[in-house]
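Human:
If only I could read backbone structure tokens as easily as an amino acid sequence. I am handing you a single protein, as its sequence and its fold in token form. I hope you can help me see how the letters and the tokens relate. Thank you; the sequence and its tokens follow:
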Amino acid sequence: MFIADKWKDYEVLSTASGEKYERWGDVYLRRPDPQVIWPDDKFEEKCNPNAVYSRSSSGGGSWTRLKSMPSSWKIGYDSLGRKLTFIIEPTSFKHTGLFPEQAANWDWFGGLIENAVRQGRDDIKILNLFAYTGGATLAAAAHGAAEVVHVDASKGMIARAKENVNCSGLSDRYIRFIAEDCQKFVEREIRRGRKYDGIIMDPPAYGRGPSGELWKLEDSIFGFVSRAALLLSDDPLFFIISSYATEITGEAVSQVVKLALPNGNISCGELGLPVTDRNICLPCGFTTRWSK
């Protein structure tokens, strides 16, 4: 398991029976998590949240505020000495605009980028696909990438990513934000002959692009990874895939990467977050890492 255990502004305080109790800076939230399949008889007395998320029987859900809290706020993360800042804002879909378990990946590829820069490579280009609010984009830029291309189909997510870039003091870095279906973007980059030294992707289990393009992970992942692999430079640093899909395993995706990128080192495992009140880790999806 790749554990994101370097956080100061975030922690999973307690877990029980499909729920987790978290601290996001000075704000405490309680929300569902299907991976929490164990009980804790004292969970209720441990929880004192600012807000609780409840699912609706008709789909979706909503937050109930129990104590005063801002509508949005900022938290920071120190990635190998590089300070990243994120805007947190609870949404009607249960999310907050950040997946803190991804910090384990930021540190991993951040170290690879920094090492390459120390060796004299000053033109490193990174592609971040399904880039959401830009956690990986910030990390790549902060660790020394000369160019980061951030692609996501949601204009709203791109707007938030730009805000996170500004909050992190990275507005002077060369970051290209592109609102487009990731499959279409990859095909266009192949035609253009563009190359990248690192590729990051966090594809959804299911979704549609801005023009209705259908994405279903198990049907699309092999072809997409194979095509995206053509964008790697002659001396690439890494290729990394994360996913929260439950229909297929991380090991299955690692075999896809092995077929698409046969020459390299591959590691695969769950992403995890430590749970403060117990000596356990909360599984948070899987990741496959390829490096030269």
